[in-house]
Amino acid sequence: MRQSGYFLRTIKEAPKDEVSLNAQLLIRGGFIDKLMAGTYSLLPLGLRVYRRIENIIREEMDAIGGNELFLPSMHPKENWEKTGRWGSFDALIYVGLDEEKNLALGPTHEEIISPLARRIISSYKDLPQYVYQFQNKFRKEKRAKSGLMRMREFIMKDLYSFHHNQEELDAYYEAVRKAYERIFERCGIGGETYLTYASGGAFSRYSHEFQTLTEAGEDMIYICDKCRVAINREIISDLEYKCPECGSSELREDKAVETGNIFKLGTRFSEPFELNFQDKDGEKKSVIMGCYGIGLQRLMGVIAEIKNDQRGIIWPLEVSPFRVHLVSLGVKNEEVSRKTDDVYADLIKAGVEVLYDDRVDATVGEKFADSDLIGIPYRVVVSDKTLKENKAEVKRRGSEQAELVSWHELTNMIISL
Amino acid sequence: MRQSGYFLRTIKEAPKDEVSLNAQLLIRGGFIDKLMAGTYSLLPLGLRVYRRIENIIREEMDAIGGNELFLPSMHPKENWEKTGRWGSFDALIYVGLDEEKNLALGPTHEEIISPLARRIISSYKDLPQYVYQFQNKFRKEKRAKSGLMRMREFIMKDLYSFHHNQEELDAYYEAVRKAYERIFERCGIGGETYLTYASGGAFSRYSHEFQTLTEAGEDMIYICDKCRVAINREIISDLEYKCPECGSSELREDKAVETGNIFKLGTRFSEPFELNFQDKDGEKKSVIMGCYGIGLQRLMGVIAEIKNDQRGIIWPLEVSPFRVHLVSLGVKNEEVSRKTDDVYADLIKAGVEVLYDDRVDATVGEKFADSDLIGIPYRVVVSDKTLKENKAEVKRRGSEQAELVSWHELTNMIISL
């Protein structure tokens, strides 16, 4: 993608009303735009990061048997009344087509998927089922000052599973836990992310969250470094300040943000919607459910929040909007310009995704500053100086060392990195 | 995809409250589910069709320089007040986080993209720009009885273009027109779809719609078969019942539905938002805009509405959820079952997308009826009978003729079709 003509402009200073580091960096880098508190547009550069994350999650959901679907955002009052959450679910945004507010904007989709599953599930032969979606959620957030980490509308991956019995749910829950670990690992925040015991609701003693360490987090967790698990402060009294796995009380306190949750619903939703199945022996039973969420913009925000330095973002490779930021210095020198065009064409031909800073009127300082701010992993510079040596300069974002690489080695080197 | 275990169940009778043919077929075939009037879920099978259409549109938008982004659904009152459409845009759904309704759910995004474009565009060097999105739109539709053809929430592709001057807009408008023709052609409804002159709004005498012929359409158009264009009845008096291209008055009347529109906005939105640029000579000018929409579920609905027979849908190849419906008859015969598994593995290995009806407890009649209802282009049957001849039976949906094809030719034949 040529930077000239791209719908991208970096800015030196983030808007004054933006207090969150992730939003400041993402706004300055041209990834997002703030429409109002808790509401951001994904600009082309930001949508590329979003899509990387979406694809990672989709691959991992498909790998555990998930079938993707897409449910509506406007929900009928009856569905939420059936579960007793109409009027009591804090974050619900009510809406009406007439004067009467008899719809809600979906903050989650148990009220929709449970009755829908009745269409598919009636016999033990129809179980288990796993369905998920990437879908806009709406939440009346009171505190919306954490940039992408707390939004009023955001895309969530929500997976719902339907089972014969508790043992089957337990096994699938475990498979989802592992899929989530792979997702956070691939997004580059595996090391900072802990499986965390949290309050469980009606159907199990604990639920599990994934908490990622950051000073900007609103949760406090207690980490057992030996087991690599943590406890959310909200349940610390229950557990008497002990690691629930090894029993150790050597726990380390830290601030974190919830980046995913997995939850055993049991029959909480199948009962009100009479989502039943006939078992092998003809007995009618309630379907056992689980639900598993990841907020995508939040995940993107957390990555930006913790992967950066004073110059800008440092994207982990698998979620970076491009693999290479190709920077042409001295584009008024026709030879430099022509050579950089050749490098660009070679990389594209090899299937490498490249953002090409071909701007004529940006200074060397501006180009370097923008490249650091945007944070693409590999910067390749072509200039008068490198041209004289018949080489390009390759530098990893975040590293101080640059390397001169000859033209004929460049593409293969970039692919192998 | 193995049909056993897939989140799919066809039904014999569509819900009694569903009067629209497209929704009846799509509900019966397991593509969609109706939540309430004008509101449908895309089930896994339906989402596959949706994604095919989305990818066709994305490819064609990228081919004319479009950059994809993603804008919010909740819009601030101020933005809509600035253009004078708050309180006057019929289909607007108002919503509030508090008691006050000071937000609207976006039915279109001129009010968001125009101020956002100010961030990118300030000089003539920043133009032209083309951005588009696939995004949920919300509309207070009074009549929502046409299935996917008139929904209260639906995903729209909306493209916005920003130009130096009218000539540049005119040229791009023409490029979009051609892209739209390719989209409808690839979706299999090119023959039924006409570029149609409609009322133009403030900035040009006419706008253009794409209208697709169907008895279920709510519009009446007058077609000039020679020029392959049409006129919407709404402007028939203006044009004095003449083809606007050749002047002929030999026009054919037919019912149609709008499947796309392209619109010259001029400065209608750039003026209120002061979206200006500095020209080469230093003069400040308003940016000239265009907008171009396609509703994706409607397009899917129109295809189902016109591509069917009494047995079910007949998907055009490029939008079909799968390329092949592999049907195993007599799966209780182990040899049949094993052979169909082999065929399935071969096709998957060759990159062919296959829905595999491996159900044990469905009858031959049920399997054939489901296959016709779902409407995948190629049906491949393996049975006791075909096995005896060391062949599979291949039949094109909608054709009466089946062909016996030997195992070793099958995969290549399917790929070449």
Describe this structure in words.
2 copies of one chain form a homodimer. In chain A, the strands form 6 sheets. Chain A has a 5-stranded mixed barrel. Chain A has helices at residues 21-28, 44-63, 77-82, 110-117, 166-186, 296-306, 334-349, 364-374, 384-388, 407-416, and strands spanning 32-36, 39-42, 67-68, 74-76, 93-95, 103-105, 129-138, 153-163, 193-199, 206-213, 219-224, 229-232, 252-266, 276-278, 284-286, 288-295, 308-309, 312-313, 324-328, 354-357, 378-382, 391-396, 402-406. The model of chain A has no long low-confidence stretch (mean pLDDT 95). The longest helix of chain A has 21 residues, at 166-186. In chain A, helix 1 (21-28) crosses helix 6 (296-306). The relative contact order of chain A is 0.13. Chain A has 417 residues and is of the alpha+beta class. In chain A, helix 7 (334-349) links the parallel strand 19 and strand 20 (354-357). Chain A contains 10 helices and 23 strands. The first copy, chain A, is elongated, with a radius of gyration of 25 Å. Chain A has 2 domains: 21-71 and 109-309, Bira Bifunctional Protein, Domain 2 (BirA Bifunctional Protein, domain 2, 2-Layer Sandwich); 322-416, Anticodon-binding domain (Rossmann fold), CATH 3.40.50.800.
